Amino acid sequence: MNLEEVLKLKRIVFYDGDCGFCNTSVQLILKNRKTDFYFIPLQSDKAHQIMSRFNEEIKMNTLYLIEHQKLYKKSTAALRIAKNLRKAYPLLYYIGFIVPPFIRDWIYDQIAKRRHSIRPGYCAMPLEEEKKFFMA
């Protein structure tokens, strides 16, 4: 898939592919999604190409979401992802936006600093039917 085709996808999640906590979060999204999400590790060339289109310098401790060709990051990205999941996850979206972004992002940053110790060294291989949602 070329860069233009990738950018036309509705929801693309960029995550730290070397982070066990991040990989666990990707698995949670896959298991609870109401809609399609596509995943690109931040370490990939494709991530760097796409982020340069948004004039965004990649930070490994940041979750990014491109939704309908608009870039979101940190807590706002996480909440927008939650909105498109099943079960009670969409409630996080509505409750989370009550909290001002600078507080949400401070909490996000505290978790991001500790992400490697929260769930170290875990990287599940996607199931065959999930592989189409991963790009490098």
CATH topology: Glutaredoxin
Strand order of the largest sheet: 2-1-3-4
Main pleated sheet: 4 strands, mixed
Counting helices, strands and paired strands, the structural category is alpha+beta
Span of the ends, CA to CA? 10 Å
Task: Tell me the number of helical segments per DSSP (H or I, 4 or more residues long).
Answer: 7
CATH architectural category? 3-Layer(aba) Sandwich
Order of helices and strands: HEHEHEEHHHH
| Low-confidence region ranges | none
Overall average pLDDT:
89
**Total domains, how many?**
1
Oligomer: single chain
- The CATH class assignment is Alpha Beta
Strand content: 5-15%
Helix content: 40-55%
Overall body shape? globular
Number of strands: 4
Radius of gyration: 14 Å
Give a concise summary.
GO terms for molecular function: protein-disulfide reductase activity. It contains seven helices and four strands. By secondary structure, it is an alpha+beta fold.
Write a structural description.
One of its GO terms (molecular function) is protein-disulfide reductase activity. It comes from Brumimicrobium oceani. This is Thiol-disulfide oxidoreductase. The chain is built from seven helices and four strands, in the order αβαβαββαααα. The radius of gyration is 14 Å and the shape is globular. By secondary structure, the protein is an alpha+beta fold. It has a single domain, classed as 3-Layer(aba) Sandwich (Glutaredoxin), CATH 3.40.30.
